[in-house]
């Protein structure tokens, strides 16, 4: 049972009223609903939400309210989390590696769509899963560029191997499907074209008609605030590539966005604990908390600084060494983010766009890391 959260009008009202000492996620359900509608209305197929990006019950409940009914899950825990809120949800277990116990559990809980990318995993699945009503999505990889980091380094069969797996899955009586992930924060819509053309070739090589083609997550979120991209351009590129590659036999399409769905619905409000004589800034959250992705993706520039009463700091931007709160020297944001030169102890530093992989990766190392969520009715979290 979810308790109805207090709804603040906006982040500034909350921060000025409560002056929280601990870092807090600011959640704007309206932003999440709007993004869900963009996917549901614009993507040319089924939208499944990649639960790993943010599995907070309020996030899942908001997506359900917006009309999302299908979810990409990666573990038994994610399966249970979704089913506890939506017992009839459609689940894709698209983690390509699952133990036998996890496969059996998922099947018992009603999951009927599973990914694999190797002969060893497929052999395991053939032993554990009855083929009736079960879809196997073979994950393949291509050398397509454009992502912030490349998932092909860990997952995905080469096209020829994918064709063999697809043919074997079909011959064993499973519904044969293909899936790919161009890598997260992929700023190149052409990567999807390359993958979709390859999917058509793989299906031809295997001699099967695809029950589904899942075009992955990877859709980008705004990180610097000035990128020129629109999700709708990605959707159009995918629809066009599918028409060209498959002609009048386009398989049912699915996508599984995590980052692009959830990023903009949450910000993190951190607080300045110390401005040292040398100008270094110590925040009450860092890379072991909501900023875990900063060393991988680079410091985002969507940062705002407010004084303790909620007024924006307007000093000239100045590069700063920024440390997190743990007693560990690795806990530092990459580079030297520009922060106003009148920034002072007690100020709030708000990091925007952390709804995906911000909350999910909080470690609580040293006892730090945000656990609190403040919900706002404003259309955006900050
Ligand atoms: C199988 C699968 N689908 C979807 C996603 C979501 O990707 P993104 O957050 O880049 O949209 C991931 C991320 O790890 C994934 O592994």
UniProtKB/TrEMBL annotation:
<dbReference type="GO" id="GO:0004586">
    <property type="term" value="F:ornithine decarboxylase activity"/>
</dbReference>
<keyword id="KW-0456">Lyase</keyword>
<feature type="region of interest" description="Disordered">
    <location>
        <begin position="307"/>
        <end position="327"/>
    </location>
</feature>
<keyword id="KW-0663">Pyridoxal phosphate</keyword>
<dbReference type="InterPro" id="IPR009006">
    <property type="entry name" value="Ala_racemase/Decarboxylase_C"/>
</dbReference>
<feature type="active site" description="Proton donor">
    <location>
        <position position="327"/>
    </location>
</feature>
<dbReference type="InterPro" id="IPR022644">
    <property type="entry name" value="De-COase2_N"/>
</dbReference>
<protein>
    <recommendedName>
        <fullName>ornithine decarboxylase</fullName>
        <ecNumber>4.1.1.17</ecNumber>
    </recommendedName>
</protein>
<comment type="pathway">
    <text>Amine and polyamine biosynthesis; putrescine biosynthesis via L-ornithine pathway; putrescine from L-ornithine: step 1/1.</text>
</comment>
<dbReference type="GO" id="GO:0033387">
    <property type="term" value="P:putrescine biosynthetic process from arginine, via ornithine"/>
</dbReference>
<comment type="similarity">
    <text>Belongs to the Orn/Lys/Arg decarboxylase class-II family.</text>
</comment>
<feature type="domain" description="Orn/DAP/Arg decarboxylase 2 N-terminal">
    <location>
        <begin position="32"/>
        <end position="263"/>
    </location>
</feature>
<dbReference type="InterPro" id="IPR000183">
    <property type="entry name" value="Orn/DAP/Arg_de-COase"/>
</dbReference>
<feature type="modified residue" description="N6-(pyridoxal phosphate)lysine">
    <location>
        <position position="52"/>
    </location>
</feature>
<dbReference type="Pfam" id="PF02784">
    <property type="entry name" value="Orn_Arg_deC_N"/>
</dbReference>
<dbReference type="GO" id="GO:0005737">
    <property type="term" value="C:cytoplasm"/>
</dbReference>
<dbReference type="InterPro" id="IPR029066">
    <property type="entry name" value="PLP-binding_barrel"/>
</dbReference>
<dbReference type="InterPro" id="IPR022653">
    <property type="entry name" value="De-COase2_pyr-phos_BS"/>
</dbReference>
<dbReference type="InterPro" id="IPR002433">
    <property type="entry name" value="Orn_de-COase"/>
</dbReference>
């Amino acid at each position: 049972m979810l308790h109805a959260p207090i709804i603040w009008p906006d982040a500034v009202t909350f921060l000025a009223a409560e002056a929280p000492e601990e870092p807090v996620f600011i959640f704007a359900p309206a932003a999440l609903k709007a993004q869900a509608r963009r996917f549901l209305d614009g993507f040319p197929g089924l939208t499944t939400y990649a639960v790993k990006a943010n599995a907070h019950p309020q996030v899942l409940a908001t997506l359900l309210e917006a009309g999302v009914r299908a979810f990409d899950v990666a573990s038994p825990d994610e399966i249970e989390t979704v089913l506890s809120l939506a017992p009839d949800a459609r689940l894709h277990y698209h983690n390509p590696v699952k133990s036998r116990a996890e496969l059996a559990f998922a099947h018992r809980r009603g999951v009927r769509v599973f990914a694999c990318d190797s002969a060893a995993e497929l052999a395991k699945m053939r032993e554990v899963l009855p083929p009736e009503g079960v879809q196997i999505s073979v994950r393949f990889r291509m050398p397509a560029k454009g992502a912030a980091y490349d998932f092909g380094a860990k997952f995905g069969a080469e096209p020829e191997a994918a064709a063999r797996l697809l043919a074997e899955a079909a011959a064993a009586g499973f519904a044969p499907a293909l899936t790919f992930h161009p890598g997260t924060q992929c700023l190149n819509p052409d990567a999807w074209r390359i993958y979709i053309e390859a999917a058509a070739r793989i299906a031809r090589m295997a001699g099967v008609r695809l029950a589904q083609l899942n075009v992955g997550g990877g859709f980008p979120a705004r990180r610097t605030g000035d990128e020129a991209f629109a999700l709708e351009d990605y959707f159009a590129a995918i629809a066009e590539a599918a028409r060209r590659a498959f002609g009048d036999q386009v398989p049912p399409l699915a996508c599984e966005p995590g980052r692009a769905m959830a990023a903009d619905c949450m910000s993190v409000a951190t607080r300045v604990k110390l401005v040292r004589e040398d100008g270094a800034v110590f925040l009450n959250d860092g890379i072991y908390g909501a900023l875990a992705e900063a060393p991988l993706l680079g410091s985002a520039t969507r940062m705002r600084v407010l004084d303790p009463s909620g007024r924006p700091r307007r000093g000239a931007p100045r590069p700063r060494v920024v440390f997190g709160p743990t007693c560990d020297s690795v806990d530092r944001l990459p580079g030297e983010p520009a922060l106003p030169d009148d920034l002072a102890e007690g100020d709030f530093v708000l990091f925007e766009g952390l709804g995906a992989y911000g909350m999910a990766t909080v470690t609580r190392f040293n006892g730090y890391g945000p656990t609190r969520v403040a919900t706002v009715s404003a259309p955006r979290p900050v």
